[in-house]
Amino acid sequence: MDVLYVTDETGALCDDVERWQRVRRDLHEVIFGGHDVRALFDKRRPAPSLVPRTRPEVRVEINVRNDQSPSETVIDVFGPDGLGALYRIASALADAGLEIHLAKVSTQGDRVADGFYVVDAVTGQKVTEPSRTAAIRESLHAAFAEIGERPKALAQIV
Asked: What are phi and psi of 120, to 5 degrees?
């Protein structure tokens, strides 16, 4: 069983009934209605503003380690947060043929700091081949590039 503690923008536990009804409806549509998760994120993406919001630069760091767990490869990721960040990171891991056994997910301001305990989805073993770990890193960097994409601002009025 998974237990999730969800907080709002202020860090308080989220108890907004309307928000939870939207979450419940969206989950139902994705699971039973065939809706695409990426389409839901795109629908929720805020409209561009005339004045772009500046954000501090957040460096992407990806560590793939096999000395932290006896049975899983541990992948720690640090990078910019954004709408759908966890989905994009988890999708990159799944697309790389990995099964997530444990995820430790944290957001610190505009930065994610997540840890994933993974195994190869076919063999159930750690990922030890250097070429495979390099491909995983590349896939995660691509996911962070998507997270970092911002909607294009309206053309500047001259």
From this structure: -65, 130
Would you say 156 and 149 are in contact if contact means Cβ atoms under 8 Å apart?
no
Q: What are phi and psi of 74, to 5 degrees?
A: -105, 125
The dihedral built from the CA positions of residue 47, 38, 99 and 138, taken in this order, carries a sign that is negative
Kindly tell me if the per-residue pLDDT of 153 is higher than 60. Answer: no
63 contacts 75 by C-beta, under 8 angstroms: yes
Architecture, CATH, for domain 61-148 = 2-Layer Sandwich (3.30)
Extract the tokens encoding 36. Answer: 């695409």
Give me the residue spans of the domains in the chain: 61-148
| Alpha-carbon gap, residue 45 to 137, rounded angstroms | 26
Does the pTM surpass 0.85? The reply is: no
